[in-house]
Amino acid sequence: MSILVRNVSKRFGDFVALDDVSLDVESGALTALLGPSGSGKSTLLRIVAGLETADAGEILLAGKDATALAPQKRNVGFVFQHYAAFKHMTVRENVAFGLKVRKRPKAEIADRVDELLNLVQLQNFGHRYPAQLSGGQRQRMGLARALAPEPQVLLLDEPFGALDARVRAELREWLRQLHDVVHVTTVFVTHDQDEAMEISDQIAVINHGKLEQVGSPRELYDEPATEFVMTFVGDAQPLGDVLVRPHDLELSAEPTDGAVEAMIVRVTLLGRDAKVELHDTSGAEIVALMTRADFDDAGFWRGQNVWLSPRHERVFESA
Amino acid sequence: MKRVLSRLGLRSIALAYLAVILVGPLLIVFWRTFQDASAAWDALTTPETIHAFKLTLIITAIAVPVNTVFGIVCALAIVRKRFWGKGLLNAFIDLPLALSPVVVGLALFLLYGDDGWFGGWLSEHGIQVLFALPAMVIATIFVSLPFVAREVVPTLREIGDDQEQAAFTLGASGWQTFWRITLPSIRWAVIYGVILTTARCLGEYGAVAVVSGRLQGETETATLRVQERWEAFDVAGAYAISIVLAMIAILVLVAMTAIRPKEERA
Amino acid sequence: MVFVGLPLAALMWEATSEGSQSFWDAVSSPEAVAALKLTVGASLGVSVLNAVLGTITAWVLVRDEFRGKIIVNAIIDLPFALPTIVAGLTLLALYGPTSPVGIDVAFSRTAIVLALMFVTLPFVVRTVQPVLQELDPEVEEAAHSLGASQTRTFVRVILPNILPGILSGVALAFAKAVGEFGSLVIITGNIPFQTEVSSVHIFGRIESGDSAGAAAVATVLLGISFLTLLSIGVIRHYATRHDR
Question: How far apart are CA C204 and CA C192, in angstroms?
Answer without folding.
Answer: 10
